[in-house]
Each structure stands twice: as structure tokens, then as C-alpha cells.
Amino acid sequence: MTTGLARTLGEVNTDASLVVEFLNTVNVERGTDLLDDLETWQRWAHEHRLRADTPAAARETRDALRAAIGDPRLPRLGLRAPAEIVLGPEGPLLVSETAREAVMAASTRLTVLGEWIRLKICPADDCLWAFYDESRNRSRTWCSMRSCGNREKARAWRARTADVST
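Above: the chain sequence. Below: its structure as C-alpha cells.
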């Protein structure tokens, strides 16, 4: 069982890290999905000190969350997840038994803190990587300017210069 409020360690938000890592259990660029292999999924959950749900339940949660933050491949569907709140010495805590519950609890804490809008999906069709926008004005678009952002800017420049020369 995991409990706790959103914790910030330096600049790293552990709730955001958990959610992003969970969302990125699918890799569009490589065509791999960690949830396709039960043993790999169970290892991922164990490494995060969580109990693995069924891959189907985890996939349903992951796809709903990815759609909610902008994955264009997925339909936006509602999702219900059980939540347990325990009053501890530091106040109310969301209690999680499984990976799915922990990710939903982390997502809820991010929403309450106004940080949910910082979760984004890279718009590059061959990437679609989830990331947490740490920019001051929350305007980051690409997972990485060095790869996806640079590649898209180069495509746009080539398109503009091709239009001018014809």
C-alpha cells in the first residue's frame, strides 16, 4: 500500500514522474507496449513499489489518461477508479493498493494542485511521448527541442522555402 501527498524533491515532482512514466509504457516511435507482456508489466509495477493490475485494466487507465492530455490517436472516454481516503496525522491521504490506483491518485493530486495542465503529449506523429511541462509559462510543446522540436521546425522551414521557390 502506498500513501502520501504529492512530494516535490528539488525540481522533480514525484506524482508527475509516476504519471509520465506510466503514460510512456507505450512507445509509439518503437512500436512497443510494455503492457503487452505480463512479466514486463509486473516488473515495472514492482520497480515502482506497486502491485500490478491486469494489463487490460492498466491499458484502459493509460489510454484514458493519454487521451485526456491530448493523444490524438485515442478517443476521450470517461474512467471511473476507486479511491480510498484515509485521515492520517498529516491530514487526508489518498491510499493506493495497485499501480492503476496510484497513478489515478497521483493524477488527482496534480489536478488539485493545478499541475495537471502541465502533462502533455508531444505533437510529433512519430513520437507522442508524454512529458511534464516545467516551463514557467507552461508553453512547452515538444518532448524535446533537440529531437522532435528541431525536426518539426526543419520540416516547416523546408515547406516554407519550397513554397517560395516554386
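Residues 8-138 form one domain.
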